[in-house]
Amino acid sequence: MASAPRLRVPPKESVVRKGQGMEDDASGSGEAGRPALLSFDKMPEWFQHDNNQWILHGYRPISGSFRASFRSWWFLHNETVNIYSHLIPAVVFLLGEWYILQYLAGKYSRVTSTDFVAFSSFMLTASICFTFSALYHTFMNHSYAVDHLCHRLDMLGIGIFIVGDIILGVYIIFWCETALRNIYWSMIGVFGALTIITNIHPKLQSHKYRSMRTLVFVATGMSVVAPLIQGLDKFGLDLMSKKALIYTLVAKIGCLLSGTALYAMRFPESWWPGGFDMCSSHSFMHILVVCAAVIQMIGYLEAFDYAYLSITCSAS
């Protein structure tokens, strides 16, 4: 999973052709027919440009094959932790949706279909986000074009999860304020649509539109600020701390900022080049992102419990 949109520089045609199949230096096989893993300096120029120079070894050769890239799930390389640290949570969140819905139906007698939809939006979008991330790290050794496409899907998955997260948060904060809730849902829906368009529209992928893509992505993430501010103004800090579970929000932000900081500094691999080839700053960021998602879901369940049992909406 990528932490922020980044510029992809198209390689020269000769470099692209060279990177479509197995590299000459990787023609030999490792154990059980696996491709021999490469060092950073043996990878194509386009791959080196987009990746971490402090990770020295453990690179899969350029496969030019989806099947070959999928087979890399079964042996250790420097993307293994990045793949499984989001592939496993993707499955857990997908299956966990059923568990959450059963939990709500069993604990609360007046649970509604809207409650189910709100929680499903969080669980499903989390699963989509982690799935796209795992696929990106699986196929980044396929070719330049596929690496670029999967990176866009990775960023799209992050945007989708942000939307699902805010949908559930707004639902609980504005428990009785249906009109306000619908306004914010519409707002995040617009931002979500713009995120999808800017990530998948071919004409918007050039360097010319990089600032626009970044702005839309940041605006989508920051759209959570407006309902939080209005919630604080309308309900006060004490009630908002119960509706929004401030301590879980702080813990979630702490996880995300810590992961982003590690990735930005390329720590610890930049301090010990070659020492963290199999588990690097990107891997730690993945794990902290999953922790943030779990913490947020726990907070939402506690906030829902408070709203359901303690808040009575007027009939008007």
Description of the molecule:
The protein is an all-alpha fold. The protein has one domain. It is 66% helix and 0% strand. The protein is built from 11 helices and no strands. It has helices at residues 13-18, 45-50, 66-71, 80-107, 113-139, 144-173, 178-200, 210-222, 225-243, 246-265, 281-310. It starts with 12 loop residues before the first helix and ends in a 6-residue tail after the last helix.
Task: Give the helix/strand class.
Answer: mainly alpha
State the separation between the terminal residues, measured CA to CA: 45 Å
Q: Mean pLDDT across all residues, rounded? A: 89
**Segments where pLDDT lies below 50 for 5+ residues?**
2-9, 13-27
Described by strand count, sense and barrel closure, the largest sheet is: none
Question: How many helix segments?
Answer: 11
Multimeric status of the protein: single chain
Q: How many β-strand stretches?
A: 0
Helix content class: 55-70%
Secondary-structure element series: HHHHHHHHHHH
Overall domain count: 1
